[in-house]
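User: Hey, quick favor. My workstation is busy. Could you predict this chain's structure for me?
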Amino acid sequence: MLLVGNGRLLTRGKHNRLIENGCVAADGDTIVAVGTTAELKEKYPGADFIDAHGGMIMPGLINAHNHIYSAFSRGIAINGYNPQNFLDILDGMWWTIDRNLLLEDTRMSAMATYLDCIKCGVTTVFDHHASFGEIPGSLFAIADAARALGVRTCLCYEVSDRDGEEKMRQAVKENADFIKFCAEENSDMVKGMMGMHASFTLSDATLAHCRENTPEGVGFHIHVAEGMTDVYDSLKKYGKRVINRLYDNDILGEKTITGHCIHINGIEMDILKQTDTMVVHNPESNMGNAVGCPPTIELMRRGILCGLGTDGYTNDMYESMKAANCLHKHNLCDPTVAWAEVPQMLFENNAAIGARSFQKPLGELSEGAAADIIVSDYIPLTPMSADNANGHTLFGMSGRQTVTTIIDGKVRMKDRELIGIDEQAVLAHAREQAAGMWKRINAGK
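Assistant: No problem, here it is.
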């Protein structure tokens, strides 16, 4: 039995409330009670106790769209790389990196990323992976890293025709093998989806092959209309827009995540709504790639489930939330928007996305929910309540204020000290792998 108390506890979830001097009790991997510190100490006198020292006790954060392999891109200088548009960025940077990623690079990218997630209070990660340098076993390597560091994760491999049919088929098989593995293991810590890059790198035959190798009850994770190249390609080759094409190929549905959805129209929004397909917004990536701002506010107004991701840009979900808040105000020239919508994406909708893949409720501190608990050292300067907690989160918190991270009832970081993890050894190994990858890239330029 574990108690985390002596802090302001924000439950989130349906019955969101703020408990002064609050406490949460976890028995194994499940939360069994929430109340005041005095109440739960009396109820569970023999439990281990973690002192929040007056900070914020909250549910672990969820990243609904990440790219673990981007960990090795920081500061990279690729000979001859001078992008003029989004397609240049994809081919010159990201596809160049993933074509040079070997299995150990993938594993160490995951180790470094999950370590950073723990330090930022992110306890669940939906990842969309690509490593065309070595495809077989790549999702299993990431899963091994997730298991070693104890992070909850949902994985898929990015199927694409861009490197030929053989690698496309390897990618589909990697997804299918991993989905089967997850089903047989039946763990609530690792799940699988069928991943796909984007419509403009996927033929109808490839979409059909993906569909044929995806079991019932398993969704797809795909980039949609991130750039206009995707839209133009679909219109020119198939005479239809991207969402219409995916609908015709039976890709959409309540288990499917569509990333970005920047260049979509009203009819496509209607299809997303009618199929109950999920959308994930990645604000910093969209701004960095200069691909535009998605109609996220309108999507949410229409009742489409929109979550928040980072697209590999960061592992700090607070950072992504702050960027989204400013982006939509700026894009719509309206200072009144995004105050409610962006926190809803991170704290409510990401939990709802998690519920479509994982068994226990995520993103809330309530009886029966997963014991994913974080403590931030944030102590409010101004009065705080459940009603204004989002404002405190937006302007007062950051990922690196996380001092304690508990995932699945296991303490992974306490008072900023990683538990059972040799951070320096992990990072040293990751640096060696990254240096080797950089050398391979520029040796071929």
